[in-house]
Amino acid sequence: MVSGITVPDAIYKLFGISVATESIFLKNKANSFVRNQLIQTVREEGVQRAKVYIKDLSQLDVLHNALLLDAIFSDTQVVKRIFDDRGYRNECSKTIEKLLCGNNNISGIALQSNQVQIFIDTFASDVDLYKTRLPNPFSTLPQVALGDNTGILHALLINSSTLTSTDSILMAYLQRDFIKAKQLCEYLDDSVLGIKALKQSIEIELQQANEFDDLLDQMKKM
Prior knowledge:
Elements: H1 7-15, H2 24-35, E1 41-44, E2 51-54, H3 58-73, H4 76-84, H5 86-100, E3 105-106, E4 109-110, H6 113-124, H7 142-146, H8 152-159, H9 163-174, H10 178-185, H11 195-221
Antiparallel strand pairs: 1-2, 3-4
C-alpha cells in the first residue's frame, strides 16, 4: 500500500522541519536520494499533476539515516555507498568517531551530548541502515544551519589549521573538478582528520564519471 507521505511530509515527520519555509536545500538533498534510488518512491497521476510519495513507511528509516549521514559527508553517492558497502562503512565510522566523539558542538552545530556516543556506536555496529533508525546527534540538522553544498566534514576542513593545504582542494571539489582535486590530494597525510574521507569521496566521483564515459562510448558504437 502506498504510504501517502510525500518527501517534504516525511522530513517534517522525522525532524519537524518545514522545507518550504525553513530549508529548500534539505528538500533538494532528499530528492537527490530519490534520484540515486536510495529512497524508493511511487508516482500517482493526478488531475492536474502527479504526486510522488515514499514507497512505504520503511523509507522513513532510510531517509532519516541518509540525511544524518549527508549532514556529515555532504555527498549523496558517498551516503549511498555507506548503506551498501560494509567495508566502506567501517572506514567512515572511524571518521565519524574522530569528528564527533567528546564534542558538544562542531563547526558551530550543537550536538545532543546524550545521543552522540549512541550514534557512533550504532553506526559502527552491524545494524541494517535500511531498517534501523540511527539516533540523531544533532540539535539542528547541519544542512539547515550550513546551507548549500556544505557538510560538517567540509566545514571543519575549511576552518581547520590545514586550510592552506585543503582550501584549493575543497574549491576544486565543490566545483566538481575531481581530477584537479585528486591531483591536489596526492601528497596530503591521510592521518589528518577528514583527508581520507575526502579522498574517498573524490575517487567515487571519478569512478562514476569514468563509467558514464564508458557508457557513452558503447552507445556511440551501437
